[in-house]
Structure formats: C-alpha cells, structure tokens
Input
Amino acid sequence: MSHHIVEVKNLSHIYPDGTAALFDVSFRITHGESVAIIGANGAGKSTLLLHLNGCLSATSGEIRIGDTRLTAGTLPDIRRTVGMVFQDPDDQLFMPTVFEDVAFGPCNLGLSGMDVEQRVSDALERVGAAHLREKPPYHLSGGEKKRVAIATVLSMMPDILVMDEPTSGLDPFARRQLIGLMRDFQHTRIITSHDLDMVYEVCDRTIILKRGMVAADGSTGDLFENGELLKECQLERPLSLQGCPECAARIRSCGTAKC
Amino acid sequence: MASLQQAVLDLKNLDLLANGNSPIHRLDARAKVLVSFVFIICVVSCDRYEVAALFPFCVFPVVMISLSDLPPLFIIRKIALICPFVLAVGILNPVFDREILMQLGPLGISGGWMSFASILIRSTLTVGTACILVGVTGFTAVCQALERLGVPQIFAVQLLFLYRYIFVLTEESDRASRSRALRSCGKSGKGIRSFGSLTGHLLLRTWQRAERIHIAMLSRGFRGEFRSPKTSRFGTPDLVFVLGWTVYFAIIRSFDIPRSIGALLTGGGL
Amino acid sequence: MHMADALLSPTVGVALWGASAGTIAYCSQKVSTEMDSGKVPLMGVLGAFIFAAQMINFTIPVTGSSGHLGGGLILTILLGPYAAFLTIASVLVVQALFFADGGLLALGCNIFNLGFFPAFIAYPLIYKKIIGREPTSAKITAASIVAAVIGLQMGAFGVVLETVFSGISALPFLTFVAMMQPIHLAIGIVEGVVTAAVVSFVYKARPEIIQSTLELSPMGSHPMRNILLAFLVMAMLMGGFVSRFASKNPDGLEWSITKVTGKVGMKGPEQGLHATLTALQEKIALLPDYSFRKNSELRKEESKPEAAQPFQKTEAKKTEDQKNLAGTSVAGLVGGTMTLGIAFLIGFALKRRRLPQRIVLS
Output
C-alpha cells in the first residue's frame, strides 16, 4: 500500500509573472492520514494542491506519490491515484447529466459497459446521490452538486482524495452531511479549508502555510491550542474551541472536542 | 434579447419537459431528429402561394404534442415569440404582390396576402417543430443524436458545453449587471465605459473558469477524446416512427388532399 | 438579422446548410489537430459567455436606446477563426432551437451570415491587417469597429441575397437592400464600439490572450483558399443536387419561354433523363415548380445579366399561376379547413386516450 504516500520535497513555485507562491515546502503524508492544509488567503494552498496531481509543475523540488515521482511521463498514473475535488462544483460538473459526469473518469480510464455502470452506481451510492443519476447538473442544489462532484472523483477509485474548500457555500445541513461523508472515507485525505471547525472534526493533522512556506505541521489539536501561531498566520481558533464552557469541559476531560 | 432571463427559464422548462415518459419520449433521439428534418424540408418546399395544402402538415405537431403530453400553451407561446423579422418582411408581400389570385364571393384575395399567410403558417410549423423536438428529446440527446448521425465530435461537445454553461454564466452576468444597475442610479453609469469593464471582467472570469474546467477534466484523465458511456439502440419502434411519418409527409406533399376533399364537398372539379 | 425558415426556399436553405456543414467539418478538423485540449472548455464557455454578455446593456448616446455585445467578431479575436466559427455555429444552433431565431432550415444561412464573414473575412483581412504585429488600444478600437461594420454589412447582404434567391418574399431586391444595409450599418457601428471596449479591457488586463490568438493561426493565403474552396464546392454540390431533384419536365409555359428566347438547346442534354423521370417526379417531387423556374431563369440570367430579378415573374407566368390557383384555392381552402379540423380531432382523441393511462401509471 506504499502508493498511498504523498511526499513533497523542497517544493517551490514561481508564477510566470514573477510571484513566488510556494517556497521550499516539504512534508510527508502516509497511508490513511487525514490532513488539513490551512492558511490565510493567498498563502499558497490552492497552488500547492494543483501541484499534487500535476496541474502545475514545480519550479524546483519534487513530488512523490507512493514510489512514483511526478513527471510528465507518470502523469496519467498519478492522476488516477490522486482524485481532486475542486472548490466550485460548477467547474467540475461539465457533462450533461450526473450519470455521464460520474462516468467521465472511468470512461477515460478505458472502462466500458458494466464496469462503468458499476463504478458510477457505487460512487453515487457512497455520497448518497443515487437518486440524482439522470439529472442535469444545473438542476441540482449546492449541496447536491458538491456530493456529485465528490462522486465524480470517487468513481475513479483514487487512493488519495484531495479536496479544495469542500464546505464552502453549503448550508449547515449539507455541511454536516459532507463532514460525515469525509470522516467515513478510508482514503488518505488532503483538505484545504477556511472552515476550521470542520478541519477540527475531520483532520487529525494540520499543515499551516504562511506566505508560501510551511509555518507549522502537527496534530490539529496542538496547533489550534497555539493562539500565538494562529494569530501570526492570520488565522483564528475554531468557534468550537473559543471558550465555550461545554467544549472546554470536554477538552479538559479527554483532550479533544470529538469524544 | 431583453427577455433573456425569461428565455433561460424557458430553456430549463423545455429541458424538464424532456424528462417526460411517453411513447414519443422513449423513441431514439436520432429518429426524432430525422423526422423533424424531413418535416421541415417538406413544409418549406411547398409553393409560396400554398395555404390549404399546408394544413395536413399540422397533423404532425398535433400528434406529437398529444402523444407526449407537452403543454400546448407553452409551445404556442414560444411560437408567438418568433422573430418579428418574418412579419416585417412578410407584411410587405401584400404591398408588392397585388395580383388577385382567389375570389371568395365579392372578396378578391391577392397573391401577396396568400403568400403572407403561407409564410406565417410555415414559420409556425417549422418553429413549432423545433420546439417540440427539444421538448420531447432534450437538448443533450439531440446533440448526442447529431454526433451519431455524423456531426464531428468536437462540435457536438461544443454544443453540450455551451448549453451547460449558459446557466452558470447568465446567472453570473445577471448578478453583475444588477449590481451595476443598483449603483448607477438610473441612467448615469450605464455608458459604454462601465459596460466595457463590466463585460471585460465577466469575460476574464469566464476565461479563468475555462482554465479551471480544463484542469478538472485533466484530473479525471481527459486526453482530448470524449467517450460516451451510453449506447441507445435504434429499434423497431424507431424505424416505424421514421418510415411512417416520412411516408405520410411524402403523400401529403405530393397529393393536395385538402383540395380533393374540398372538391368533393363543393362539387367543383379538380 | 437572422434569416428565417419561412423566407427560405429549400434549394437555398439546403445549399447553405451544406456549405456551413462543410465549413464546420473543416474547422472541427483544424481545431482537433491543434491538439490543445484546453480549447474544448474554452470554446464552450465563451459561447455561453456570448449569451451572458447579452444581458448586460448600455445606453447608446444620442438615441438613448440600449445596445449589447454581438457575437462573431469578439469570439474570433479571442479564439482565432476556426474555433470561433465552431463556437458561433453552436450559439446559433441553440438560438435556433430555443429562441426560435430563424429556424432549423435557415440555420445554414445564419451560420454562414454570422459566422463565415466575421471569422474568415472581417478578422483576417481587416482586423489583423489594421492591428499588425504590435497591437495598441487605438489600433484595437479602429480595427474592431471597421471589421464589425464590414462583417455585418456582408452578413446583411447575405440575408438579402438568400431571401431574394428563395423568392418566397415578394420584396424587390433594391428595396430590400435599401432597407437592410443602413440598419446594419448602425448595428455594426454599435457592435464595433462594444467589441472594442471589451477587447481593449482584456488587452490591458491580460495582453497575452489577445496576443496569442494573433500569433496562433497565421492565416496565409493557403488556409483561406482552402476554406473558400471547400465552401464553394459544398454549396454547389448541395445546390446542384437539390435543384436537380426539383427540376421537372418543362411545362407548356416553359416551352413557350424557351421558344420565345430561342434557347431550346439549353435543356437538350437533360431531356432523356427528364422524360423517364417525369411520371415519377410528378408524384414525388419534393420541390415545387417555382424552384425550377427560378433555376432556369437564373441560368438565363447568367447569359443576360440585365435580365429581371429572378423572383419577378413574367406576365405569362403570372396569368398561369392565377388561372391555376384561382380555380383550385376555394376548394383547397374548404378542404384545408376540414383537414385542420381533423388534425385537431386526432390530437384530442390521442390526448383522451393517454389521460386515463397516466392516471393508472401515477
């Protein structure tokens, strides 16, 4: 199962217009981990994500997915391994119906007939969207779109799931559903978000980016306790940790808000 | 296109109609595309003074609407919206063509009026058929049918993409123009300068969206070729549908049935 | 601006369908071989943008009416001719199907009028020439306006020619020209100004977009000639096919005309074929008399350029038409009304039969 490992070594990226977006970023994520990448606007989160499946190529440094180094030659394999869910589901759902959209990936993998059918059904089942199968994407609500967008990636059976701002723009109910969904995944998960409450619930480990550099990397609970650090990185403690007597009591008793 | 919002709404409605489940809906899209096309060719090929001979063609839209449970009013409203261009050009026919072609008692009807009536009926029939085709098939299925009938894939895909993002982008531009209207207090601010930058911004955002979509496609293994997961069959009902209507159109196109019926009734010779 | 089904004869309609289809096939091939998979979503989204941009209006000075962005030229400036042609065509397909702009048969004409001229004439021969190698805001403005005006004038003239050759409308050629061209001069100037405003904005914000398209397809004489050739060949093939289909054995009137003009020999070679097909074609002729007459008149017109407009009938023909129609149309009208009644009865009957079914189903 070594291919579930994501390793980023000394990654730097400078945009063509000269803006340095990432500088000497290194981390290693192992099988089954659930990792949040957080940071202020413009800290380089999205740029980092786009490197993970080769949509952007590094100015220097390297990325390994499992045993494979990300190069132009290994790109198709890497893209099969790393499933990417984008922030705006309208960018991701471009096919005429939900079914065809979820089938888009498997079809590109060269599957056909029953195999595609099976994958689509499974993926839609997992996100609880089986009833939306024949609908066109523009008839879906925001939460439905998000879930279908995740299904389009799940149908490719990736080993690593990368999600950009999964909870943005969702109502509380849809957000709650999505959090449940993300916690159920067995994949390695890499999530960027400003929704730190969600991060606190879903991710055990957090990497904080600050102006293109790794400012901190450690257990979510520890980092969120460190008010100084958060403030320095233009972040804030999640609401659930902000002096709510009940949560505080829970944290005191068992070390995390989750129990 | 002042009523573009309305038009986009209609677009959605028409698309929802296509989700119906009737014998017509269940037919293969290719069959419906072919029949519609034959129909249109037959209608427009009628002589320009022809009015009565066009009536048997009404059977097709009427049957399609009844069998597929499309709301007739919706279709009629769409037809009523057709471009004033036809009227504008057609209305001049009676002016230029004053030759009396028909005597109804004391009333002489000129060729211009006949051809004007003919133009109106034609556009009703052809535009109505296009509407019905989309209503019973759905735009997506029409595009896929076109692809399987030989339209280049890139063009079929282009149609699908266009259709998909009409909804996204019209919403976006609606928001943008509303926010401008709110801040421009009536007239000022609606000039070409603010128009240029507003539309320009929309264009750049659109461009970025295209880049994001491209990334999303690449992430899911896109390599320039679309593979469709669906395969529909062109079965016996489809064949019967195509042949039946084609034969009917051929018959009413080559024999003037109303004239025969009329001759029978009025006792006049053919 | 849009050509309409109702004004179009099948010969003209199908000929331009063929031509537009040929151009679409040619452009599809060009775009596919470019191997830029990013073009696919870009074309789609920019097509949708044309719809969206039309929701943003601005007030035209002096007149106080409102204008919005037209499609053809700006798409060509952004995408280059081939991809732009496909995008314009797709926009027109959606308009034909949903907004009832024109109709399906007229689609070929509309794609030609609104796509071909801006993409393959106005852009390469006017816009690019004015812009040269180094675009500036002033050059972009001038080039957009001139190219938009000329492109639209050509498009409007296309509508006139198609209508006149179809002969459904009785509008004389010159009247129609006098009506269409000035209106489209005004529309063209507005479209040019709007296009210039948007393109200048984009050029300031992201010059590489405008620049890269300029460099993208060096439209030398070769591709241009290819596309024109492909287009003409398709148009002639389709037009020829249809008019052959439409032609009938010359009737008495035709004979008298040929006697008068003394050009019997003209139809000589076709006689054998016609004779054998007459009986069959009388019954199955898809296309009515007038298209044949028009064609024969057209052929005559070629030899006699000063001849009357093709849709203006000779006196003899008019009386013939009159005789024909006056005798039959009363009967036709009575029968027609009955047919119409029968059609709607069928509709009601079908509806009735389906309604109980639906209740059972639900």
Q: What stands out?
A: Chain B has two domains: 1-151+235-270, 153-223. The first strand of chain B starts at residue 100 and ends at 104. The longest helix of chain B spans residues 153-183.
